[in-house]
Amino acid sequence: MLACAGPEVPPIVAVARELRVTADTVRKRRRRFLAERLDGLSDEPLRAGLPPSASTRWKRSWSPRWNSSRRTPLTGHGHRWRSTVVFRSSKSTVGRIWRQFQRMPRLADTFKLSTDPLFVEKAYDVVGLYFNPPEGAVVLSVDEKSQIQALDRSQPVLPIMPGMPERRTHDYVRNGLTTLFAAFDVATGEVITALHRRHRAVEFKKFLIRIDKQVPAHLQVHLIVDNYGTHKTPAIKAWLAKHPRFELHFTPTGSSWNNQVERWFGYLAHQMIRRGAHKNIQALEADIRTWVKDWNEDPKPFIWTKTAEEILDSLACFCRRTSGAGH
User: Fold this and answer.
1) What is the three-class DSSP state of 233?
2) 138-151 pLDDT, tens per residue?
3) Do residues 138 and 287 share a domain?
4) Whole-prediction pTM
5) Closest C-alpha among 85, 102, 100 to residue 54
6) Cα separation of 259 and 225, whole Å?
7) How far is it, in rounded angstroms, from Cα 279 to Cα 284?
8) Is residue 146 part of a domain?
9) Predicted local confidence at residue 92, as pLDDT
10) Are residues 156 and 77 part of one domain?
11) How many domains does the chain have?
């Protein structure tokens, strides 16, 4: 303001040039001084950007209930499609709204709630075996990994190189199927396995006979199995009646996560099957036997952490969250 004082008011452009500021800054300061005198020269409080300007239509469109109940193509599209086609806003604005409502449009997951009327009883039974196994008994988590394919690539796999990942052709040749029967000892992590080309009650009975031979005769055997039909045939029930030390515990229907051997199958698939190339069934089965042998040389049991009460509370919370989804 002192630069603008004097008998003759200097031009705004000259003052701006002298003070090395813009003409708009000089003009704004003069206007504020004339209106508020010295109080108008103090700086305004700093603000972290402009306040949100999302309209009611925006907020409603990003709410979980609105998005899940409307059967439109909007749910699966990303920022650019939404911003340019629907809301005519910038990509950064759409991304900010996604983060505000903690939405992840590019991710999709799966779930399935068990409809087993005996879910609670079965969950308590299986989880109880994990936390408090009976004395003088062995607890085995049993299941079959069926239809393991012997796949061979149409061209040789290129090995990993500096700056280049392992590469393989997208197409493959099917060379047959096999089934792996496994009994995972929940206390030690050791696994009893058998390979069969078919997946019937006959093969499951043969696997029970193998378990009977490998588990010491003085121990009771508790088997955790799923509800697959081969586990409940008259032939299996007759065999179990003749071997009273065996007792079957069934997981709830549609709850494979309740069976620890499924996690072990995941290790097998990730570490050996998915990245393997096998010209025939014999080569696949040989690799599986080698992998199982290496596992049993240094077995690692899984640590079950959730009680049955915690599992039921989690399911109840999930049901409350999804009850208003419009499905």
Assistant:
1) coil
2) 999 999 999 999 98
3) yes
4) 0.71
5) 100
6) 7
7) 8
8) yes
9) 77
10) no
11) 3
